[in-house]
Design goal:
Shape: globular
CATH topology of the largest domain: Rossmann fold
CATH superfamily of the largest domain: HAD superfamily/HAD-like
Number of domains: 2
Distance between the termini: 9 Å
Structural class: alpha/beta
Mean pLDDT: 95
Helix content: 40-55%
């Protein structure tokens, strides 16, 4: 039985992935790192440490890494009061809670970003807990964040389901032994998510809500 449903937030519940891509691109340009926007987008969903290593040259001056992270955060913070949750996101969290599942958030966002995301989501009445990348040693695609959420819930991997939008979510779940349900709202394709190991893929959390009784979130 599914006892716990763990949700990624960026690109899954809240429409932020392309904002992140633009803000990272601008931050990189400030430090004379030119990265194609498409490459930046494909790395969104990783923690910032993994993202920088994924898109920037190995021989870069790493002394600027913290400054680029700070620049990204400052640029992204300009959008915090305008963030929008995807249609049905809050209702899906409440549907899970009404069905007796514990609802947890697990995001590569830091704790400050997480507060802004939760304001946009406006569903704290249905959320039992939240884990951010600032609380774990390694960010996605490492399994640490998923395992930390399981520990917070006191749940075994086989009794949980994770919902995410990126291949990095799926890879983290595979390593943690937790089934992952993918959504397409982050910009990854159905084939990419399935190839990475997703148990099922839906167009959006709104589609999951509409089909809830037949989804892995309800134990199917």
């Amino acid at each position: 039985m599914t006892e716990v449903v763990i949700f990624d937030v960026d690109g899954t519940l809240v429409d932020t992935n392309y904002l992140h891509a633009v803000c990272w691109w601008q931050a990189f340009r400030q430090y004379e790192q030119v990265v194609p926007m498409a490459a930046v987008h494909r790395a969104v969903g990783m923690g910032s440490d993994k993202l920088l290593d994924h898109v920037l040259p190995d021989d870069r001056d790493r002394a600027a890494d913290d400054a680029m992270r700070d620049a990204h955060l400052a640029l992204y913070a300009q959008y915090w009061d305008r963030l929008e949750a995807f249609g049905g996101a809050g209702d899906l969290l409440r549907r899970c809670a009404r069905s007796g599942r514990r609802v947890l958030l697990a995001s590569s966002a830091g704790s400050t970003e997480m507060r802004a995301l939760r304001r946009a989501l406006d569903a704290d009445d249905a959320i039992d807990g939240a884990t951010s990348s600032s609380e774990v040693e390694q960010s996605k695609p490492a399994p640490d964040l998923v395992r930390a959420a399981l520990d917070d819930a006191g749940a075994e991997p086989q009794n949980a389901v994770f919902v995410g939008d990126a291949v990095w979510d799926v890879e983290a779940c595979v390593r943690a032994g937790v089934p992952c349900v993918g959504v397409l709202t982050g910009g990854f394709s159905r084939a990419e998510l399935l190839d990475a190991g997703a148990a099922a893929v839906y167009a959006s959390v709104g589609e999951i809500l509409g089909a809830f009784p037949e989804t892995p979130l309800n134990g199917h």
